Amino acid sequence: FFFAKFLPPNAMQGNEDDDNAERRVKLYFLNTDGKWDDRGTGHVAIMRDETDYLMSMNSEEDKEEDGTAKAVFTTKISQDNVYQRQQDTLIVWNDPFLEQDMALSFQSASGCLRLWNEIRVIQGRPTSSDTSENSSGDEDYGCVANDLRLYPRLPEPRMSSLSGIQEVITSPVSQRDAIAGLVLSDNYLDKLFDVFDQCEDLIDTESLHKMFQIFKSIVLLNNTQLLKVLFSEDYLLRLMGVLEYDPQLPSKQNHREFLQEKVKFKEVIALSPEVKATIHQTYRIQYLKDTVLPRMLDDGTFSTINTFVILSQNEIVQSLYKDKTFLKQLFDKLDSETDEAQVRELVVFCQEMVTMAKTLTLQCKAEFYMELCKYGMFHVLGSCLLHPDQRARQAAVDILWQSAHQEPAIIRNYMMCDEEWARDHQFLRNVTTAVVQDPDDSIKGQMVDVLKLLLEGNTEWGRQDQINEILGLFYGGSPSVVQVLADIIMRPSPSNITTQYHVLELLAFCVTAHTHRMKKFVMQCNMIGKVVALLQPHTPIHLQCAVVRFVKAVVVSRDDYYNQHIVKQNHLQPLVDLFFANGKDKYNLVNSAIISIFDYIKKENVKGLLLYVVEAFGTQFECIGYLDTFKDLRRKYEQHKHRAANQVVEEDVAGQATNNGRHTGPRDVRDDEDEDYLNTDEDDEADEEVKPMGNTMLRKPVLKADDSEEGACALLGRTKQRTPPLIKQVKEPAPAAPPVRRLNMTTADADPEDADDEEEERVQNTDKRKREDYAQDELESPQKRPVT
Fold this sequence. Notes:
Layout: H1 19-22, E1 24-30, E2 36-48, E3 53-63, E4 69-76, E5 83-86, E6 90-95, E7 100-106, H2 109-123, H3 162-169, H4 176-184, H5 188-202, H6 205-220, H7 224-230, H8 236-242, H9 255-262, H10 273-292, H11 299-321, H12 324-336, H13 340-356, H14 362-374, H15 377-384, H16 390-406, H17 408-417, H18 419-422, H19 426-437, H20 441-455, H21 464-475, H22 481-486, H23 497-513, H24 515-525, H25 527-532, H26 541-556, H27 560-569, H28 573-581, H29 589-604, H30 607-621, H31 629-659, H32 666-678, H33 682-686, E8 688-693, E9 696-701, H34 709-719, H35 752-780
Antiparallel strand pairs: 1-2, 1-7, 2-3, 3-4, 5-6, 6-7, 8-9
Keywords: Nucleus
Region (Disordered): 644-704, 717-788
Subcellular location: Nucleus
C-alpha cells in the first residue's frame, strides 16, 4: 500500500567516514505537483532552546552579511511518529509545524543513522544500531538517487491537524493505495471519527466542513478494502453523520435521523437476523450512493459502490430462495390472505425480491425462478392481476414482466402444466383481461410485452412444441384470446384509445411472428378493414401511427393472399386519404409512416400492390413533388406494362409461326404428342388400342368385353372435359414416336427384328420423357397431373 516519489538524480549518497561529512545533507521540499524541489546543500544539527529541541540546517553556499552560514530551515522536533528513515541515507517526514513534506539526503549512512538516533532519543523511542533498518542488504543501496522512495505520512488525527490530513489525503492519484493503507492502519478511522465527535460537540462548523472534505476524499480513494470497512455496520452511520456537513449546501442534512427514525422496515415474513442485517446495510449503501454522494462521485467510485450493492443483493436473494421453509410460508400466506393491505405488502415483497434477482448469474437465476414457480408464485400472481388494489396489481404485473424477460420458458411451462389454469386458459385470459380492462395504462403496456414474449416463436427461449401449445391456447377456443383482444378495435371510444394502441402493437407483432395462424384469423375476420377504419380525422396521432404500422406489417409479410385481399377491398384508400388530409406538402410523423409503406412496395417491387397503387392513386400522387417515391412507383409501373406488352407480342408471333408450319420438325411433333400424353390419364393409356392406318397410328380408348357399364361411365366422365388428342401422321420409322406406354406393332412392311429394336428404343425414350414431364409438372402445377 505504499507509493514512490523520486528524488532528483543529484541526491547525495556515500559512505564517507569524515566527521564533517556525516552532517552534510541535501534538503528537499515536496511541491504541489508531487515533485521534490532541491533547496540546497548544507549541514544539519540539533539544538535545544528553552523549551524544545530544534533541527536546523545551515547552507554551505549562502552566507549572511557577517560571513556566517545562512540558516535554510529551523523547526521543532515533533514528539509524534512522523519521521521515517529510508534507504540508509534518507530521513523523510511531514513537518506539522512548517506544514511541509521534507526530506534530508545524507552524504553518509553513518551520519543518517546518527541523526536518526538523536531524534529517537528526544522522542523517547528506542534507537537503532542497524544501518540498513528498512532494507535487506547492502546491495540495495547502490542504486541511483531516482530510485529512492518516500512514503506518505498522515498527521495524527487532531482538530489542529485537519488541514494537514486533508492535504495528504487529496494527494495525486498515484498515492491513493498508499494513503488507503495508512487510513486502515493503527485505528486511524476510529481516531478520525473521535475527532469528528469532538467537532460536532463543539459545533465547530469550519472543522466539520474539513471533516466532510476528508471523508469525501477517503471515499474517492476508491479502495475496495477501505470501502468495505467504511460500509460495515460499525462505521456506516458515523460516515453518514460526517457527510451531513456539506459546505456547498446552505444547511446541515439529516441523513442519520432519516435512516434511524423515518425509515421503517416491514417484515411481512420472519427473516433470519443475518439476512435482516444484510438488508439494512444494503439499503444504507444504496442511500449513500443515490442520495448522499451522487454529486461528488466519479465513475470509478460509483461503479465500485454499485458492485457492493449488487453483491449484497445477490447474497440476500440466494439466502431467501434457498430457504424452502421461507418460500412455503410466503406463498401459502399470499394464496390464503384476504386482507388487501397484507396482500399488497406480500406482493411488493416478491417484487423487490425478483428485482434484486436480475443481477444473479444465469444458472442462479434459472434456479431462482424454478423454485418460485414450484412453490406457486405464478399461480398466485395470476389471481393478483385482477386484484382490486392497484398497487398490488402493479407489483404483480411487474413481476410477470421481469420474469417473462428473464425466463419466459418457465412461465410457458407453468401455463401448460398447471391443470387448474390450463384447462380453461385462465392465466392467459387474466393477462388479456388486464390488457382490456385495467384502467392503468402502464399495466396495459407491460401486459402486452408479456404476451409478446410468451408468444414469441423463438426456440432459443423454449421448446418449439411448447411454443406451439401456447399458440394453440392463444388462437384456439371460443372465443379465442386473440379474438377478445381484436374486439376492442370495434369499440372506438376515448377510453379505449390506449387499449386499441396496445392491441394494434400486439396484432402487428402477431402478423410478423405467426404467419399462418394470424393470416387465417386476419382473413376470416377482415381485420385489415376493421383496423384501417380507425383512421378518422379525430383519431389521435399515436393511434394513427399504430394503424399504419399494422398495415405495414401485413405488406412486409409479402403474402399473396394478403396482397390480393388489400387490392380487392381497396384497403389502402384510408391511408391515402389520411396522407392528403394531413397535408400533402408536409413532413410529419403520420405521413412519413405512410410513405414508408409505399417506399417498401417500390424497393421490394411487390408487383400486385405496385400496380394497384399506381392505377388507383397514381393521379393523386402526381402532385407530390418533394420526394421521388411516387415518381419511382410510376416508372416501375411503366416498366411492368412494357414488359407485359412485349411478352404478349412474342407469344402471338410464336403462335402464328406454329400455325404457318414454319417449325414443323420432328421436335414439334414430339412436343405436341407429349402434351397430348400429359392430358391423358394413365388408365386410358393402359387400355388404348392402336390401329394401323397406312403410315399413321390412331390411339383411342376402348372398352373390353368384361368392362362394366359403371366403368365405362367412369372412363367417359374422366375424359369428358378433355380435348381429344390430335391425330398426327408420322412416317415410319419416325425419329420421335408418340409417347406410348404399351404398343403391339403390327406394321406389315417392317422387319420383325428391326421393329422390336425400334419399339424398345421408342419405349425407353418415351418413359424417360414421361418421367421428366411428371417431375416438371409436379413442380409447376400439381393439379395438372394425370389422374391415376
